[in-house]
Write a structure and sequence with these properties.
This protein is an alpha+beta fold. The chain has 2 domains: about 30 residues; about 120 residues, no CATH class. It has a 3-stranded antiparallel beta sheet, covered by helices on one side. It is rod-shaped and about 125 Å long.
């Protein structure tokens, strides 16, 4: 070093106020985006659970309906086959439903078992069930009078509807 000259090292320690403000703004925008994504995810977190419960209810109803006689005049065992397709609800109480047609009377009711009793527990509160029966043999390659389509609509507590369909043939 030369005499009389001093070497000065200028060190910068820390950040300026402008840098801090820019960093805070960028982090705030990022956090707002993440929180927004979480709110969308949280709002839809019940959807898979509701879908699973709707499927369980529909399966319960479909199994019950398909196991019943084709119509009121069908003898035990289904033979001899009765001709015709009519949709008539003869029984007034769910516990008395003995053929597919009877279920056409179910419209917007809470889920029930085959005896007409509400399903136990609170898991199915807010769900509703509607059933529509139509003559639809031609849809499955039969004469129209030889098949019925069973449409079960389950509506969950968030008003989302799920449609399930099956067929009952006259054999």
């Amino acid at each position: 070093m030369t005499p009389g000259r001093e070497l000065r090292l200028v060190r910068s320690a820390g950040a300026t106020l402008v840098e801090l403000i820019i960093t805070i703004v960028i982090i705030s925008i990022a956090i707002a985006g993440v929180v927004g994504a979480f709110s969308v995810i949280a709002g839809r977190s019940a959807d898979p659970l509701n879908q699973t419960r709707a499927i369980a209810i529909a399966q319960l109803y479909m199994d019950e309906i398909i196991a019943r006689k084709y119509d009121e005049n069908t003898p035990p065992g289904g033979t001899p086959k009765q001709n015709g397709c009519s949709i008539v609800t003869e029984e007034s109480a769910r516990s008395g439903y003995d053929d597919v047609d009877d279920y056409n009377a179910i419209a917007g009711e809470s889920p029930r078992n085959a005896d007409g009793l509400a399903l136990a527990g609170t898991a199915y509160n807010g769900f509703t069930v509607s059933v529509a029966i139509t003559c639809a043999g031609t849809e499955i390659g039969l004469a129209n009078e030889d098949g019925k389509r069973v449409d079960i609509t389950i509506t969950d507590p968030s008003s989302q509807s799920y449609l399930f369909s099956g067929y009952r043939a006259n054999f």
